[in-house]
Every structure is written in structure tokens, then in C-alpha cells.
Amino acid sequence: MRRWVFDIGNTRLKCAPLGDDGRIGQVTALTHGDHRQLDQIEALLPQRGDCAYVCSVASPQQFLVVVEMLAGRFRCTSVARATAGFAGIRNGYPQPGRLGVDRFLAMIAARALGGGPWLVCGIGTAITVDLLDSEGEHLGGRIGPSQEVMRAGLHHAAAHLPPNGGRPLAFALDTDDALASGCEAAAVGLIQDSVTAAAGMLGVTPALLLHGGGAQALVDRFAHARHEPSLVLQGLARWAAAGEQDGPSNL
Fold first, then answer.
1. pLDDT for 36-50, tens place per residue?
2. Are 154 and 176 in contact (CB under 8 A)?
């Protein structure tokens, strides 16, 4: 357990050790700002590891907190970047680096699962949707707010609307439930509309792949969805394996 992968999101940090076979071990997650949990993460890490592989879409401040922690534990820290292509996928962005690295790594992991086409949906602070055809071509994506961000936005605009609470129902008879119902339905609608649009483009319905911290709340809304909560870390593990062959760059 001398190599680890770290996914620094906008809300949470997820990390896992890398086994000798290149697979990720048990995933540990914490919310940014919880220093008690950060201490627990440090307790899991080796006193002196070989390399930490990092994916980050967080703020520079959050990124630096984690990198400073890793600097005292690992011989090197290697940061993943979105490129024009990797491991059988081709980034559809004209400027490849503008694609979020978490989305890029999730597609790498989806491609490794085989088959396709895939509609890769990450549910975290944002909902990201990326269409990957059966040849590994990235055909584009969408980004929208998660249920939690919708609730926070409504609360910001109208403080009397609570930022959380309630149950998603078909039709609610209480404001908290109505808010939970509407925001979840909007999230489901974004994903379902993306499935429909992708089927129209491809002539076949893509397999739906859900990942991220918020995926569990929506997975039951899609009968044939595949749930891979740590898909970004899986993609980062594949990126790490290629980096070791080429020699990973130190931070």
C-alpha cells in the first residue's frame, strides 16, 4: 500500500490504496474542512510511500491543503491532466485541457469496462454527462446543478425556503417535500433527456453509468443504470499505471 490515488472534488476528498495488480482498495471519503477526518486519512497512509496520484477539480486552496499533506508522506506526487486521448478514448474538446479531469478519468474507466456506447454521469456538486461511443470517441457532454446545489440556490434566492430536508414524492403536500421532489425530478430529467438525445444521435440507447457521491440517491430511478461510485478513482488508477511505465512527473 505504498501507492495511493486521490480524487479531490469540490465537496469531498476520496482516496484509496493501489494494489500490486493496479486495482483500487477500500475507498475513504471526507468532506473538505473536516480536519478530524483529515487526520484519520493521514493515519491510513504509509509513513513513506512511493507515489500519490491526484485528480483535482477543487479550488486551489483545497488542492494545496491535500498536496501539502501528501508532500510529507510520498516520494512523488503526480497530477492527472485531461489530454487529447488516452487508453482508447479520444477527447472531443477542441481544447482538450478544458475538459474536467474527473470527467476525462471517468470516461477512461468506462472504456475499460468494455462494450459501449456509454453515457457517463457523475453526480456530485454538479451533474456531468458525457457521451462515449463504442469506438471510444467522446461526442460531448452536459453540466447541470445537483439536487443539493439547486436547493442551496433556491435558499439563497428566497431565504424562507429551507436548503435541505423533505422527501422526494410524485406530488408533495408539504413545502420541504415539494422542494426535494422538484429538485430530484430536475436532476432525473437532465439525465433522462441526455439518454434520449444520445439514442437519437447514435441510433442505439447507450448504457447508463452513474458515479459520484450523489449517485446512490438517483440510481433507483433508472432501471438499467450501472452504479460505479468510484469511477474517477478507477480511471486514475489506469492513468497511474501508464505513468509508471513512462515515469510519473513529480509535483
1. 667 777 788 888 889
2. no
Q: Which residues pair with 24 in a beta bridge?
A: 18
Please indicate, yes or no, whether residues 56 and 139 belong to a single structural domain of this protein: no
Cβ–Cβ under 8 Å, residues 243 and 6: no
Q: Are residues 133 and 64 in the same domain?
A: no
Full domain range(s) for residue 156: 114-227
pTM: 0.91
102 is catalytic: yes
pLDDT over threshold 70, residue 35: no
**Distance separating alpha carbons of residues 13 and 58, to the nearest angstrom:** 9
**Of 214, 159, 164, 172, residue with least CA distance to 190:** 214
Gyration radius of the chain over CA positions: 19
SS3 46: coil
Give the active site residue among 7, 39, 50, 102: 102
